[in-house]
Amino acid sequence: MRNRREFLKELSGAATGVVFVGCGFVEAAASFLQSGAGGARREVLVGGRRVRTVDVHCHCYIHDVWELIKDREEARPLRTILETQQGQNLNMANVQDRLRRMDQQGIDIQAISLGTTYLYSWADRDLSRQIMKVQNEKIAELCAAHPDRFVGMAGVSMQHPDLAAEQLEHAVKSMGMRGCMVSSNVNGEELALPKFHPFWAKAEELGCLVFIHPAGFDEGERRFQGNGGLGNVIGNPLDTTTALSHLIFEGTLDRFPGVKICAAHGGGFLASYIGRSDHCVKANPNSCKPVKKLPSEYIKQLYFDSLIYTAQGLRHLVAEVGASQILLGTDYPYAMGSTESVSHVLNTTGLSDADMEAILGGNAARLLRIRS
Fold first, then answer.
1. Comparing C-alpha atoms, which of 346, 351, 358 is closest to residue 43?
2. Which of 29, 28, 6, 7 is closest to 16 using CA atoms?
3. Are 226 and 265 in contact (CB under 8 A)?
4. Domains by residue range for the chain, with CATH
5. How far apart, in Å, are the Cα atoms of 42 and each of 38, 271, 347?
6. What CA–CA distance (Å, rounded) separates 57 from 348?
7. Is the pLDDT of residue 329 over 50?
8. pLDDT tens, position by position, 245-289
């Protein structure tokens, strides 16, 4: 006689809509089918109802730009990266493998963006214009070919802020992009500097999402040496924390109150220690000059991805900013990402069904204008 797992494996290839009854098979079947076992597309259920999941933190590489940069010294390290398995997973040419992995993880839609390396912030104006044109066109082509699985997040040339604003407008209005991805600093310069105001003004005008991803905290390189991968483990979230703090304290979020920003890796350390920023405003007004409201109030107008690894961490983020401000993130296909981001949300006790639905995809669908 077939065991339960064999029976469920057979059913996993059947048409959706099968109802399991009796003998405790409802729960067993739901658990098995949600696992994505046997190559079936994992369908995510909350409260017994199918929900659509949207991953806002996932990366790609566009090989077509190689001819534009292959002779540049700055591009030399890329060759080694792109020859690895991770590089192959990044390559947009491997779209079928990407879709297979999405199906396994229960990701219905990726809001796909470049990695920070592929923003090529070292490029001059003309070269950067060419690079972003190629990359954005290829991302748009992918989204057009698979409109039910991908939406595009444009690459923009932030080292040339007026060009970045122009690229963002073209990407959103003419290419169907839903926003863009930028790094937490641009060649060491803070995003809150006045030179970037034209970009933020355009992002606010367009009402699109700006996803901020760390570029590394180079200033800490000496102290990050040694065991522990501290440049990534500490440096990346510190870079994001610093960028967001400047956007708060330099008045960028006051100047552009309608801008929609989502920060990677749960926003770094910001939400976990925002009380210290509040206290500084009250206790040391000379160094923390008062802003229009407390820093803890600003974080409630920001968005954060869910990639913070622990249930306690996710519950804390929800408590600080609200479930309405958190979006699902995987950091695909990097090693510091997670293939269990969907399960992380589903298995975090204390979240209501409404919270889980919002985090898994509802919030992202609203911000990225993904229709039902």
1. 346
2. 29
3. no
4. 19-50 (no CATH), 53-367 (3.20.20.140)
5. 10, 32, 16
6. 20
7. yes
8. 999 999 999 999 999 999 999 999 999 999 999 999 999 888 888
Distance CA(130)–CA(363), nearest Å, equals 33
Question: Structure tokens of 151?
Answer: 């939406």
Q: For residues 240 and 212, is the Cβ–Cβ distance under 8 A?
A: yes
pLDDT at residue 41 is higher than 60: yes
Closest CA to 213 of 248, 252, 239, 250: 239
Q: In terms of DSSP H, where are the helices of the chain?
A: 4-12, 25-34, 66-69, 76-82, 85-90, 95-105, 125-145, 161-175, 197-206, 230-233, 235-249, 252-255, 274-283, 295-298, 311-321, 341-346, 353-357, 363-367
From the list 320, 343, 182, the residue with the least C-alpha distance to 252 is: 182
Q: Rounded to an integer, what is the distance from CA 50 to the centroid of its chain?
A: 23
Q: 154-155 and 179-183 as β-strands: parallel, antiparallel, unpaired?
A: parallel
Q: What gap in Å lies between CA 147 and CA 171, rounded to an integer?
A: 16
Residue 251, strand partner residues: none
- Distant-in-sequence, close-in-space partners of 243: CB < 8 Å, separation ≥ 6: 184, 185, 190, 191, 192, 212, 214, 263
Rounded to whole angstroms, how far apart are CA atoms 29 and 178?
A: 36
CB proximity list for 282: less than 8 A, separation 6 or greater = none
Secondary structure (3-state) at 115: coil
Write down the pTM of the prediction. 0.87
Contacts of 188 (CB under 8 A, 6+ apart): 218
Report the distance separating Cα 91 and Cα 62, nearest Å. 6
How far CA 72 is from CA of 10, 66, 200, 293, in Å, comes to: 53, 10, 30, 46
Q: Can you name the residues that pair with 50 across neighbouring β-strands?
A: 45
Q: Dump pLDDT digits (tens) for 113-134.
A: 999 999 999 999 999 999 999 9
Neighbouring residues of 238: CB distance < 8 A, sequence distance ≥ 6: 217, 220, 268, 269
- β-strands 179-183, 54-60 pairing: unpaired
Written as six digits, the tokens of 31 are 């658990």
